[in-house]
Specification:
179 residues; alpha+beta; six-stranded antiparallel β-sheet; globular
Length: 179
């Protein structure tokens, strides 16, 4: 009987230690989607309103590899400054996970940021863009797709910049991202 209890205790301990106590990015999105300090939005790629005939073949391939965008933004106010710091630290801790490969760092007059990805170099499944401003708050954008190619994504970003897309359909998160 004592051996059975020891075996059960050992299996339970092993099972508990196998479970990661680190929060995933998906869990972070879900946990904060109802928080009043956050603005949350899932956006289909069709909202970009890019006309296929106006895109190069490479840009069309990039657009087809995209599935959707998840946007989560924390709007900083005078009353939630402490919570902003806590939430920003949580996101930074999640993004330090080895699953996320850093693509580039951003530093501008609007704030600091980082672009990371999950997947293989030539077949990215998820791109994460995290930018923060100590004045306004932070935005966390997940670009979900299948076999996205970084070079193609850059081409697509150029097409979006050249288009007349002004953030229609993004609601208040669009206003937040504009500054």
């Amino acid at each position: 009987m004592k051996k059975i209890v020891m075996v059960i205790a050992g299996v339970a301990l092993l099972a508990l230690s196998a479970c990661s106590s680190k929060q995933s990015l998906q869990e972070y999105y879900v946990n904060n989607s109802e928080n009043p300090n956050f603005i949350s939005l899932d956006v289909p790629t069709s909202i970009l309103n890019l006309q296929a005939e106006e895109l190069s073949e490479v840009q069309q391939t990039a657009l087809q590899s995209l599935k959707k965008l998840n946007l989560l933004a924390f709007r900083k106010t005078g009353e939630n400054g402490a919570e902003y710091e806590v939430e920003k630290a949580k996101v930074n801790a999640i993004l330090k996970n080895d699953d996320f490969v850093e693509l580039m760092k951003l530093n501008s007059q609007y704030g600091k940021g980082v672009i990371k990805y999950v997947g293989d170099e030539d077949a990215i499944d998820e791109v994460i863009i995290f930018g923060s401003s100590d004045d306004k708050g932070f935005a966390l954008i997940r670009v979900l797709g299948k076999d996205m190619n970084p070079a193609y994504i850059v081409q697509l970003m150029n097409a979006i910049q050249k288009s007349d897309y002004k953030g229609e359909g993004l609601g208040e998160i669009g206003e937040f991202l504009k500054g």
